[in-house]
TrEMBL record:
<keyword id="KW-0677">Repeat</keyword>
<dbReference type="InterPro" id="IPR011050">
    <property type="entry name" value="Pectin_lyase_fold/virulence"/>
</dbReference>
<feature type="region of interest" description="Disordered">
    <location>
        <begin position="361"/>
        <end position="432"/>
    </location>
</feature>
<dbReference type="Pfam" id="PF05048">
    <property type="entry name" value="NosD"/>
</dbReference>
<dbReference type="InterPro" id="IPR051550">
    <property type="entry name" value="SCF-Subunits/Alg-Epimerases"/>
</dbReference>
<feature type="domain" description="Periplasmic copper-binding protein NosD beta helix">
    <location>
        <begin position="97"/>
        <end position="262"/>
    </location>
</feature>
<protein>
    <submittedName>
        <fullName>Right-handed parallel beta-helix repeat-containing protein</fullName>
    </submittedName>
</protein>
<dbReference type="InterPro" id="IPR006626">
    <property type="entry name" value="PbH1"/>
</dbReference>
<feature type="signal peptide">
    <location>
        <begin position="1"/>
        <end position="22"/>
    </location>
</feature>
<keyword id="KW-0732">Signal</keyword>
<dbReference type="InterPro" id="IPR012334">
    <property type="entry name" value="Pectin_lyas_fold"/>
</dbReference>
<dbReference type="InterPro" id="IPR007742">
    <property type="entry name" value="NosD_dom"/>
</dbReference>
Length: 432
């Protein structure tokens, strides 16, 4: 369901936009106020010391920037009024390529590619490309994952492809943020192993896909989010356009994934409209205690990615109400197997139900597929620039938390998580 940009184009666009890194010069201040100390965000990055803070006053900042100094915090004074605006012409809003960066309490809109990008795809000065063959030739020693990041209380709306995007990064948190109007996905985590990434407390609506994971594996936890009112709620994908196939080992627990039949959203090209969770070649994911309602095509769809099957995914304790709880659309040449659904489920095809139950008892045999799956008519969609903007979002309440980010993420106690109420984070959804 993704549409990846060629790596060379990604780098070229950044360089062409003047984002190859900050100008050299002595960093002189631990706290930089914009615009009092620096007239622009780019000037503030030049001025701030590693480990320092950039505090941005309310206002519209018609620019984009790369943060290439470790442990820097960029924080808006007012989440809804401190706005980095791409104007529909600049590719990016905020790009973090250094370890330990915090991005907090501000809004990013109007970028043609990404609102916020946290990425290890860089050479120390600016973006770099992994080679002519794209991500399949990835050299993790040459391009090590970015370490430690936080995106907190950030609003990303009406950005061309992605709202908030973490790529080739580890040990990070995306929390209490909001994304809408993305033509690919509102939130995205991709290309990492042993990721140690927590996605929690976020709202995604009016996107093509609310949350997307491609090849982010082993320790990604997605909990307490609201992925509602998109075209597709969320996806877990294996992709040959990125390194580290197959995608595997995520934990999806305690989320509201509902009513994903949005018409005031960008068109989603791959035909998954009205789906709650799509798993394409994803393996060994745990999906528990989520509220999956109002997704009239299917609450969950299993399918393959080329020769990568959907295998070993386990579903338990989810509340569903759609005409189809889980469907298997895998190609016959790449059959799904060993996927387990604990509890009663309406399936497509009907014989899949017994096979899913048997898999919970250790049967890893192939599972029946269907080529037909009814759903509502797909609405035409709209330009990302025309998606209605969100209502004002809650401000970050500051604590004594300006020290370096920890080496590992403190994960919540997932055993204590129950199926959420339909109103989870509903106060943060809706338009102005």
């Amino acid at each position: 369901m993704s549409r990846r940009l060629p790596a060379a184009l990604l780098a070229a666009a950044l360089v062409a936009a003047g984002l190859a890194g900050c100008a050299s010069g002595a960093a002189t201040k631990e706290l930089v106020h914009v615009p009092a100390d620096a007239a622009t965000l780019a000037a503030a990055v030049e001025l701030v010391s590693p480990g320092g803070t950039i505090l941005v006053a309310a206002g519209s900042y018609d620019e984009q920037l790369v943060i290439d100094k470790a442990d820097v915090t960029i924080r808006g004074e007012d989440r809804n009024a401190t706005v980095v605006d791409g104007g529909g012409i600049r590719p990016y809003g905020i790009v973090a390529i250094a370890d330990g960066v915090r991005i907090e309490n501000l809004t990013v809109t109007g970028a043609t590619f990404y609102g916020v990008l946290v990425s290890g795809l860089h050479d120390g000065d600016g973006p770099a490309t992994p080679g002519e063959d794209g991500y399949t030739g990835w050299d993790p020693e040459k391009f090590p994952p970015l370490q430690r990041f936080l995106v907190d209380h950030v609003t990303a709306y009406n950005n061309g492809l992605y709202g908030i995007y973490a790529f080739n990064s580890q040990h990070g948190v995306i929390r209490d943020s909001y994304a809408s109007g993305s033509a690919d996905s509102g939130f995205y985590v991709g290309q990492c192993e042993q990721c140690d990434i927590l996605v929690t407390g976020n709202v995604a609506e009016r996107n093509a896909v609310g949350f997307e994971n491609a090849n982010a594996s082993d320790s990604v936890v997605i909990t307490g989010n609201r992925f509602s009112g998109n075209r597709v709620g969320m996806t877990l994908l294996s992709s040959y356009q990125e390194a580290f196939t197959p995608q595997r080992g995520n934990t999806v627990v305690g989320n509201v994934i509902s009513d994903n039949v949005s018409s005031d959203s960008p068109k989603q090209a791959d035909g998954g409209f009205a789906t709650g969770i799509g798993i394409s070649g994803g393996q060994d994911n745990v999906v528990e205690r989520n509220l999956l309602v109002g997704n009239p095509r299917a609450d969950v769809i299993l399918t393959n990615t080329e020769d990568i099957p959907a295998t070993g995914n386990r579903f338990s304790g989810n509340v569903v109400d759609g005409p189809v709880a889980i469907a298997n659309l895998s190609a016959a040449r790449t059959p799904a197997s060993g996927n387990c659904w604990s509890g009663t489920a309406t399936t497509a095809p009907a014989e899949l139900a017994a096979q899913l139950t048997a898999a919970c008892d250790g049967d890893d045999g192939d599972q029946a597929t269907t080529s037909q799956l009814a759903g509502p008519d797909v609405p035409p969609g709209m330009s990302f620039r025309k998606v209605p903007p969100p209502r004002d979002q809650p401000q970050l309440e500051r604590g004594d938390d300006d020290g370096p980010l920890p080496a590992e993420v403190r994960m919540p106690d997932l055993d204590a998580v129950t199926v959420p109420d339909a109103g989870l984070l509903a106060d943060n959804s809706g338009t102005r």
